[in-house]
Amino acid sequence: MAISQADLDALDAAIASGATSVVFDGRTLTYQNTAQLIAARDHTARVLSGGMQNRGPRLFRFAFTTNRGD
Predict the structure, then answer these.
(1) Contact in structure between 9 and 45 (CB atoms under 8 Å)
(2) pLDDT value for 42
């Protein structure tokens, strides 16, 4: 099941109404509390915005010194 904008909208609507149950593709998910619902909403938004994509290797800079007096 791919995450879509409709899923994010459903989570937002549940948060706004104070409900802890959300329907996704005919399946109902019930969260224990609003904090878990908000965490699921944040994760969904991060995935949709591309925050979970691999951004490649990070670059590091090293400075070398010697004991020879150079």
Answers:
(1) no
(2) 94
What gap in Å lies between CA 65 and CA 3, rounded to an integer? Answer: 50
CA distance 19 to 34: 8
Q: What is the pLDDT of residues 6-18, one digit of tens each?
A: 999 999 999 999 9
- Other Cβ atoms less than 10 A from the Cβ of 60: the count is 5
Helix or strand run (H / E) with residue 27: strand 27-30
CA distance 5 to 24: 11
Pick the closest to residue 30 from 17, 14, 43 (CA basis): 14
Q: Residue 55 corresponds to which amino acid?
A: R
How many CB atoms within 10 Å of residue 14? 21
